[in-house]
Design goal:
This protein is of the alpha/beta class and 309 residues long. The chain folds into two domains: 10-68, DnaJ domain (Helix Hairpins, Orthogonal Bundle); 101-305, no CATH class. 39% of the residues lie in helices and 17% in strands. The strands form two sheets. Strands 1-2-3-4-7-9-8 form a seven-stranded mixed β-sheet, with helices on both faces. Strands 5-6 form a two-stranded antiparallel sheet. β3 and β4 form a beta hairpin. α2 (22-36) packs antiparallel against α3 and α5 (108-122) packs antiparallel against α7. The longest helix has 21 residues, at 142-162. It is globular and about 65 Å long. 39% of the residues are buried.
């Protein structure tokens, strides 16, 4: 709830400045509880946010830990060069299970763009000690925060797919047009089919209506754009996608999996991040499975055609 660059901080939810003293913080919390309680006309979702905010900053110890923060760069990829080796998820010493084949760098383009714009926003000649410091990030322009939020979303999806095992192959940051930002976040090939995956974080609740996403932070037509880009990649690689999946933070969806049927002839599902593994293993309703020698044929076609941004 508070771990997105687009979400309000615990202090903003409570309606106070980060420098407020403990007594004023406590008064603000009690006031916000009364204002947002469902019995007095408040919204349950906001009421829960207020309680969660108090858990994060309501005690001296918790507040100190929150103020220190872990930053938004904890899962930064090793390099942004196009010649960098294929991305691999962080090693887990106690887990030696085979990982999915992975090509490209998830979130790499957006992280690079984020760092460039962050330095531009801070100003030339100003030393940027930690570009992922939570306090700095939350003050940055919306476009800058949006880039980081999406980069983190892509990296989180990459970790989920990596855990699916060696039966899966994933390509990250796949070019789908002439412009640098015309890309597909992930292509995932496995026994259940070939899918194009969009990883997003709009910073708030999202609804699905008439085959598209709606919400306060939703810009444009994400599903229509994804399908258009998949058609471009499909023509280039001479492959047919079995479906399209949009992955969102768990807190932003009312239900973990929502299959919305065919949109422009392609099965589409909107899923929470924690449900992505289940979705990819079982497949979308109506999606064509890929098995036997066809897996190798599709993988080879994609390997020859895919360009990374």
């Amino acid at each position: 709830m508070f771990d997105s660059p687009l979400s309000a901080s615990a202090y903003q939810v409570l309606g106070v400045e980060p420098t407020v003293d403990e007594e004023a913080l406590r008064k603000a919390y009690r006031l916000r509880l009364r204002q947002t309680h469902p019995d007095t006309g408040g919204e349950a979702s906001v009421f829960i946010q207020v309680q969660r905010a108090w858990e994060l900053v309501g005690t001296t110890e918790a507040r100190a830990a929150y103020d220190r923060g872990h930053g938004f760069g904890a899962h930064a990829a090793p390099a942004f060069s196009p010649d960098a080796p294929a991305w691999r998820p962080p090693a887990r010493p106690a887990d030696t299970r085979p990982r999915a084949r992975s090509y490209g760098q998830p979130g790499g383009w957006r992280r690079e763009r984020y760092l460039s714009l962050m330095r531009e926003w801070v100003g030339r000649g100003v030393e940027l000690e930690d570009p992922y410091d939570p306090a700095l990030v939350r003050r940055a322009p919306h476009l800058v925060r949006r880039l980081l939020a999406d980069a983190l979303a892509e990296e989180a999806t990459a970790r989920v797919v990596a855990d699916l095992g060696m039966g899966y192959t994933v390509w990250h940051d796949v070019a789908a047009g002439r412009a640098a930002d015309e890309k597909v976040d992930h292509l995932v090939l496995g026994p259940s089919g070939l899918y194009g995956v969009l990883s997003e974080d709009f910073g708030g609740p999202v609804r699905v209506r008439r085959g598209e996403l709606y919400g306060e932070g939703v810009e444009g037509s994400p599903i229509a754009t994804l399908l258009s880009r998949l058609r471009s990649v499909g023509r280039s690689a001479r492959v047919k996608f079995g479906g399209a999946i949009v992955v969102l933070p768990d807190d932003d969806l009312e239900q973990p999996i929502e299959e919305i049927g065919r949109v422009r002839g392609v099965p589409v599902a909107v899923v929470s991040r924690s449900a992505l593994s289940t979705m990819l293993r079982r497949g979308l309703t109506g999606a064509r499975e890929v098995g036997g020698n066809e897996v190798f044929d599709v993988r080879t076609r994609l390997q020859h055609a895919v360009r990374h941004v």
